């Protein structure tokens, strides 16, 4: 599964892993991606999205219809 949120666009970040002796090596900070399916009344079917935890909060706050309409306007394949 790709580490990108379809709603917020969040992707992996990078930083340093710091040991006890303060040595630094590169690491990745992956977003908390969940595969979640929603029923969209405007489309009349279920849509499966790869969303982060923040993306789930956005869907809860704004509603699935408005989020899906924005994704369709951007050209995201559902």
From TrEMBL:
Annotated segments matching region Disordered: 1-27
InterPro entries in UniProt: Ribosomal_bL28 (IPR026569), Ribosomal_bL28/bL31-like_sf (IPR034704), Ribosomal_bL28_bact-type (IPR001383), Ribosomal_bL28_sf (IPR037147)
Molecular function per GO: structural constituent of ribosome
GO annotation (BP), single: translation
Keywords: Ribonucleoprotein, Ribosomal protein
Any Pfam family hit: Ribosomal_L28
Presence of keyword Ribonucleoprotein: yes
GO cellular component terms listed in the entry, alphabetical order: ribonucleoprotein complex; ribosome
Any coiled-coil regions, as ranges: none
Family of this protein: Belongs to the bacterial ribosomal protein bL28 family.
Record-given protein name: Large ribosomal subunit protein bL28
Annotated source species: Enteractinococcus helveticum
Gene that encodes it: rpmB
